[in-house]
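INFO worker-7 received task bundle
INFO bundle size: 2
INFO processing item 0
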Amino acid sequence: MKNDAQPWKSNTVEPPSRTASEARLDALESRLAFQDDWLETLDRLVREQADELERLTRVNTLMRERLSEQRQAIDDLGGEVPRPEDELPPHY
C-alpha cells in the first residue's frame, strides 16, 4: 500500500538556501565593484582636469610674456599706452 501522506519529492537537486552571510557578502562585493568603477571614473576626470589646468597655466604664462613684450615695445618706441578711460567711445 502506498502512503499518500508523504510529500512529493522531485528528482532535481535544489540549490542550498542562501544564508544571510552569503547575501551580505554578495551585496558587499556588488558595492565594491560599483565603487571601483566610480573611483576609476573620478580618477580619469581628475587627470583630465589636471591636464586642462596645466594647459591653461601654460597659455596664461605665454600671454603674460607676450603682453610684457608688447608693453616693452611700446615703451621702446617712446609712446604712451592709452588707457581705456582716455579713449572716446566710437559714437563721438
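INFO item 0 finished
INFO processing item 1
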Amino acid sequence: MIGTSRRVKVHALAAPADLRKGFEGLSGLVREILKRDVLSGDLFLFVNRDRTRAKVLLWDGTGLCLYAKRLERGRFACLWRDRARSALTLTTSELQLVLEGSALVGRVALSPEEIGEKELAAGSRR
C-alpha cells in the first residue's frame, strides 16, 4: 500500500487514461479534468482503457511520486461505468482494493461523516 498516516482523499479519473503520460501529462489531467491541485497531497488514480494498468500520482511534500502497476491476470475495476461523472472519490482502503484487482460493487459507510467547523460551532451552542 502507498503508505500514509494522515487522512487523504483519493480522486480517480472516471475515464480511461493514456498511461504513456508521465508526471506532467497526468498533472494536466488532475488540473483540467479533476479540477484539483496536484500539490494537495491527495492521491490521483488513473487506469488505462484495457484496465490492465494503473498509475497513482501524489505529492509527498518534497516532489511528485508516480506509482505504476500492471496486472498479469484480470482487470482493474471499471471506474467509468457512470458516463456522467468525470471523477470518483475513493478512500485509501478502496484504492487498495482497486490496486489488488478487486471489483467495486457497492459502498457502505463505516465511519461517520467528517465534522466541519460549522457543525462544531453549532454544537457548542447547545
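INFO item 1 finished
INFO post-check item 1: The radius of gyration is 16 Å.
INFO post-check item 1: The beta strands are 10-13, 43-47, 53-59, 64-70, 87-90.
INFO worker-7 idle
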